[in-house]
Design brief:
Layout lengths: L8 H13 L10 H8 L5 H17 L10 E10 L4 H7 L10 E9 L4 E9 L4 H8 L8 E4 L6 H9 L3 E6 L4 H9 L3 E6 L3 H10 L6 E9 L5 E6 L12 H6 L2 H12 L11 H26 L12 E4 L1 H8 L2 H6 L5 H12 L2 E4 L26
Helix pairs in contact: 3-11, 11-12, 11-14
Length: 384
C-alpha cells in the first residue's frame, strides 16, 4: 500500500510479488479477495503513527530550512471525491446537496520550507476547516509560525495559538469594522485590539479560555492589480518583522496548495482501492506517508546537487514527481530490507540529477472546473 497503489489490485499484487522474489515473474500468487480481507485487519492508524515517527526522526536528524528562526508551516483544506458507496456517503456526506458522489474534507499541516506534512486530518464534508485546523495545533511546537488563508480568522482561534505559544499570519476579509478603519487610515501596519465578538465570546466561555481582548498586528499588502489585501498576525515586533517581509511570508503559503496538487495529480489520492471507510483512510494515509518519504529523500538529494553554471538563467530544484516515481518498487525493497544501503545511495544520487527550473513570478489564468461523475471508476482500474 506504500507502493503508490494506483493500478488494479491484482496487477499491483503481481508486481509486488515480482519485487519480493526479485524475479521477472514470480511463481507466487495472491488473490484480490485475499488482500482485501487481510487489509481489514490493519488499522489506518498504523500509517499515521509511522508518519509521526518519520516526521520526528526527520526533524531530529535533518538540517532544516526556517524563516527568520521559525519553522514555517501552512494549513489548508481540500475536498476530494470518494467512490460511490452507501457506507461512504453515510459517513462522509457529499460536497453539494445535488452531488451524486460522496466527498471527504482533508486538512493538512505542511512545512513549506522542507516539504513535509506533519499532520493530515480526514473528516466528513460538513466539518469546518477551523475545527480541523485546531487539531493540527497538537502537532506544532513553541516558536512555530503557521500561515493561513482567509476563512480561518476568529478571535477564539487566535487565542488557541497564544495558548500554544505558536505564532500565526492569516489573510483576513475586509468586511469587519476594524479592518475597514485600518484601510481608511492609510497605514500599512498597525497594532490593534481585538475584542471577543458574540460568536468568539460563546466559544471562549464554552472552552473555558480567556475572553479578554488581544493585541494583534494588521498589515496591508498591495497586490499587482492595486487591490489591497489585509493580513493579521501575532508578529507584533516592528523591528524584527518589518512590514516589507509580510508579502513574501504570505506568498509562501502557496506551497501547501502545490502539495495538494501533488497528492491529487501525481499520487492520485482520489484513485481509491476500496469502497469501505477503513480502506479509504488507509489509502489516504499510506500515500501521504509515501509522499513524506519522497520529501525526506529529496532533502538528502539536495546535498548532492552540484552548483549549476553561472550562465544559467534560473535556479534549479529536485523534481518531486521524479522522486516519487523512483520510490515505486524501491520503497518495497527498502522497507522490507531486500536491499542494503547502497540502493538508497544510488536512489539519492539519481534523484539529485533530475532537476527542474524554478521560474519565479509565473501566473496562469485559473480554468473553470469540469464536473465528472467519477474520475476513477472502481470497475476500470488502470493496469500500471
Amino acid at each position: 500500500m506504500l507502493n503508490a497503489l494506483n493500478g488494479s489490485i491484482q496487477a499491483e499484487l503481481v508486481r509486488f510479488l515480482n519485487v519480493i522474489d526479485d524475479s521477472y515473474l514470480s511463481t507466487k500468487s495472491v488473490s484480490t479477495a485475499a488482500f482485501c480481507k487481510a487489509r481489514m485487519k490493519l488499522s489506518h492508524q498504523a500509517f499515521i503513527e509511522l508518519n509521526d515517527d518519520l516526521v520526528q526522526m526527520f526533524y531530529e536528524a535533518a538540517t532544516i530550512d526556517k524563516w527568520q528562526g521559525h519553522r514555517l508551516l501552512a494549513v489548508d483544506g481540500s475536498v476530494t471525491q470518494l467512490p460511490n458507496s452507501d457506507e461512504l456517503l453515510e459517513n462522509f456526506g457529499k460536497a453539494r446537496s445535488h452531488a451524486a458522489m460522496p466527498a471527504v474534507r482533508l486538512s493538512q499541516l505542511y512545512d513549506v520550507k522542507n516539504n513535509i506534512t506533519l499532520d493530515l486530518q480526514v473528516e466528513s464534508h460538513s466539518t469546518g476547516e477551523r475545527e480541523m485546523a485546531l487539531k493540527h495545533l497538537n502537532k506544532t511546537q513553541t516558536g512555530d509560525l503557521v500561515v493561513y488563508d482567509r476563512g480561518y480568522p476568529a478571535v477564539w482561534f487566535y487565542k488557541y495559538h497564544m495558548i500554544n505559544n505558536v505564532d500565526f499570519c492569516m489573510r483576513i476579509v475586509k468586511g469587519s469594522n476594524v479592518v475597514k478603519a485600518f484601510l481608511e487610515s492609510g497605514k500599512y501596519s498597525d497594532i490593534v485590539d481585538f475584542p471577543c465578538t458574540e460568536k468568539s465570546l460563546c466559544r471562549c466561555r464554552k472552552d473555558k479560555i480567556s475572553t479578554e481582548s488581544i493585541r494583534l498586528r494588521l498589515v496591508r499588502v498591495d497586490l499587482p492589480s492595486g487591490e489591497p489585501e489585509v493580513l493579521i498576525s501575532s508578529l507584533t515586533d516592528l523591528k524584527v518583522y518589518p512590514t516589507s517581509v509580510f508579502a513574501d511570508l504570505y506568498h509562501q503559503r502557496w506551497g501547501v496548495e502545490e502539495d495538494f496538487k501533488l497528492l491529487k495529480s501525481r499520487l492520485n489520492i482520489e484513485n481509491y482501492s476500496s469502497v469501505s471507510i477503513e480502506g479509504v483512510l488507509q489509502d489516504l494515509h499510506a500515500k501521504l506517508l509515501t509522499k513524506n518519504l519522497a520529501a525526506s529523500a529529496i532533502h538528502d538529494a539536495k546535498r548532492k546537487i552540484k552548483k549549476v553554471k553561472k550562465n544559467r538563467l534560473y535556479d534549479y530544484k529536485v523534481n518531486f514527481t521524479f522522486a516519487i516515481n523512483q520510490l515505486k518498487d524501491n520503497v518495497v525493497r527498502l522497507t522490507m530490507k531486500l536491499a542494503d544501503f547502497a540502493l538508497y545511495e544510488l536512489l539519492i544520487s539519481k534523484i539529485s540529477k533530475n532537476l527542474s527550473a524554478i521560474r519565479p513570478n509565473r501566473k496562469f489564468v485559473r480554468k473553470g472546473r469540469r464536473t465528472k461523475p467519477n474520475k476513477y471508476p472502481m470497475n476500470y482500474k488502470r493496469m500500471c
